[in-house]
Amino acid sequence: MSTLHVLSHSPFGDDRLNSCLRLIGASDALLLTGDAVYALQPGTAPCNALTTSSPTLFVLIEDAQARALAIPDTARGIDYPAFVELSLQYDKVNSWL
Hints:
Blueprint: E1 3-7, H1 16-23, E2 29-32, H2 45-53, E3 56-60, H3 61-66, E4 75-78, H4 80-89, E5 92-96
Parallel strand pairs: 1-2, 1-5, 2-3, 3-4
């Protein structure tokens, strides 16, 4: 069963990103929204964790732009309509609240 994991909290405030990366399966994906896009900052521990684990990674373009962060080649930038479509492609959606 595939799961879309949605993170919206800063990876510098708690351990949600690391917990998610430990649980993410081969058929799962990770979507960074809100302050979770700060995980894309090059050279940081969250960015290194994403690079090491290599999940299927999506990023809300609007949130990355609002924080002046570039979306790396290892991720796919999406807009809100694509977010809705993406949530329909997976069996479950797990929001890490």
